[in-house]
Design brief:
The protein contains 2 helices and no strands. With about 100 residues, the chain is mainly α. It has one domain. The longest helix is centred in the middle third of the chain and has 57 residues.
Length: about 100
Amino acid sequence: MPAPKRLCKKPTSYKLPVDIEVLLHNAVESGEYNNTSDAITAALRFFFQHRDIKQVKDEVAVLQSEVLLLNNKNQILESKISSLESQIKLLLLPRE
């Protein structure tokens, strides 16, 4: 699969807080990453994957609450149907 084309022709640069710079430097110096670009890329990939997972979890939570609500409504409807069936049976009983 060919590598995707870059959106920008020139390098992208950002100013990072000092504490993040220190963490990046330490990660590269320890051999965990080849360079700061690799470390930043890994961090951003992790961020976007985590964000996607959180979004899916939030959507699942909404769907679960909707299912509970529908189950409650279903129980109420079943109770009403049962009550109506009982009333119909009473009405259909032969009268003396």
